[in-house]
What we know:
Blueprint: E1 19-20, E2 28-29, H1 32-58, H2 94-101, H3 103-106, E3 111-114, E4 119-122, H4 123-131, H5 150-162, H6 166-178, H7 187-199, H8 203-216, H9 219-231, H10 235-247, H11 251-263, H12 267-278, H13 284-300, H14 304-316
Antiparallel strand pairs: 1-2, 3-4
Amino acid sequence: MSGCAECGKEEGGGVASLKMCKACMLVKYCSASCQKNHWPTHKKVCKVRAAELHDEALFKDPPAKEDCPICFLPMPKCLLACISLPPATISSVPIYDFSIANEGLARMSAEKYYCCCGKSICRGCLYSFHKSGNIDYCPHCRADKRSKTDEERVKELKKRVKVNDSGAMYILGNSYGRGYLGLPQDHAKGIELLAKAAGLGSSEAHFELGAHFDEAGDSKKERFHYEAAAMAGHENARVNLGLMELQSGNTERAVKHWMIAASAGSFRAMHNLRTAFEDGLVSRVTIESTLTAYNNSCVEMRSKARDAAIQLEVDTSYTINIA
């Protein structure tokens, strides 16, 4: 149908333009009143098609990972994804076993954000830079980072927030929410900043908001933010979505989420798939193809410098301080 789905009017002849139904993209209307009047007839088809479009977006391949601006290697969400361990097999996911023995390391981000230039640098490059004696400077812009007070750090972050830097919004939002950097704990301010960062496309902010609404018991908003984070490439958000689907009895959707996350290098997703395989919920063909993608993805993110940074953490519980 080329005209208004309710009254049949065509564009021109007094109708400036027809507006597409944003939910299903199947029909057009000449006015809000026509759309409202047509809804009882249209709603069933609309909801089905809207759900199909949503799933197409949700389960498509995620965007490529951002590269570290110094070594140009893909930046994993979790530091463990780039450690050199034997390739995962059907009966063993060594990186997951390693993470259990190094729980603190398993939770550690693979990158650090610098508010002086708004860049995130991988820990491998931080290790190399500090090893060369440049611990007091930003690895990217060489800004002097010596003796910065919490007040000065917050001031730098706020400058980046003013130019719509989502990374700075995310860090400042977390700092308000948890009372870091000498700031008074202010959950409302923290959520406001995280929401603004999420609006600019920050997968990390969407993930934090998902976790917040999980704690608040708002499953609808929790799912919305985890889905937004997953579509932006956040593997942990997709792992959580898989667990939510599994708890709802939607095994096929859970497996889809874990396949996508594991193929991007998520050891948590790969472990969940191994468990599902052992329970007879995943075929051998599926897990073998996903294992290949998982191992290849991890290889792409590895380097000697990243290995050295991880080993330093394991040996000394030393954390590189870049503040």
